[in-house]
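Support reply, case 0932

Customer input (verbatim):
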Amino acid sequence: MQIEEQKVNLSQYKNALSKRNQLVRLIWCIVWALFASPLPRSIGSGWKRFLLRLFGAKIHSTAVVYSSVRIYMPWNLEMKEYACLAPEVDCYNVAKVTIGNQATVSQKTYLCAASHNISHPHSPLITAPIVIEDQAWIGADVFIGMGVTVGEGAVVGARACVFKNVEPWTVVGGNPAKAIKKREFSCND
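Our regenerated output:
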């Protein structure tokens, strides 16, 4: 059997974002850099929520977004009650990213709701939403891939890489992330 010669041809790559989206993104980046990034850590939460809402985010009044967070498209972000995006989180939300009630995304995590179709010679952009359900905790420096749902109450250990859904109330870790144990509370409070 003879293998047909294949070649990648990125000269035919087209940006999937409309000119309008590109312009709004540019304005968003300037606004965040001038009016939110200079604020220390979690100070000015109300102001940052206002800026995010101004650009279409659905964000609860108790949600916390740190100043060093990078949000690609605020109009594709939804944060519920007491949700948190910690310092230096990179939210590449070309598709929708939802952070549930009481859910935390820890520092330096990368939420990646897009990739490229490597089976096509032009490598077009592909997207799928990310959902972090209620009470989940994403540890430090985690990678969450496109189309992933992290179930209610689940914990993703630091530096894990998640490419498949995480079951509710499960602790996962590693690269690729694998189940470690069930999450159970042991306190008497």
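We compared this against your earlier run and they match. Two observations from our side: The chain has a mean pLDDT of 94. The longest strand covers residues 178-182. Please reopen the case if you see a mismatch on your end.
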